[in-house]
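Quick illustration for those who missed Monday's session on complexes.
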Amino acid sequence: MHAAFAIFNESFMPVAFAKDRKENSMTLHIACFSASGVTRQAAERIQKLTGAEISNIEPAVPYTNADLNWRDRSSRSTLEMKSPMAPVELADVPELKDGDTLLLGYPIWWYEAPAIINSFLARYPKRKLTIIPFATSGGSTIEHSEKLLKKRFKTLEWKDGLLIDESTSDARLVEWLARAGIPAAR
Ligand SMILES: Cc1cc2nc3c(=O)[nH]c(=O)nc-3n(C[C@H](O)[C@H](O)[C@H](O)COP(=O)(O)O)c2cc1C
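Prediction with flavin mononucleotide bound:
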């Protein structure tokens, strides 16, 4: 069960729309790809604040340590990031419906989102979704990854992302979520 989420203020809705929302309630999801657990921990912090369920974005074939070696020019991750729009086969993906909001987490790989994130988003070509990115990294910022995602997936509605590290306070997370229209409990 995903946490049902009132993104809109019901009192401003026309009756027909309000009824439609009730029958087809919109949901807040968290989905993250995390190769070594750091982004998953960030997702769990967001889960505590929002109550939304986390889905792991996983490749059909898991990454080995050798696959993740960015110093190796021929490792799987290096090759994937040379063609970041080439499909990466995914394990199960969550069911997202029109109107849903997705907090989307990933580690920065070569200054952008891992190729698997592009394959994940390509699974929802016609969905009206709002996406709020968050990322972890070894020092890179999130901005370049956001720019690329927005350019590649223009039909999705994008809200400002956040790079999360150990210096990111809960108050900062709450403020970021609020700016995206998501009330959070502290
Ligand atoms: C293939 C690969 C490429 C990476 N590229 C970058 C990078 O460009 N900039 C950076 O700051 N960190 C980079 N990192 C480090 C990760 O972003 C960082 O360790 C992240 O927190 C890992 O998250 P995870 O445990 O959820 O996978 C890279 C890591 C890997 C495995």
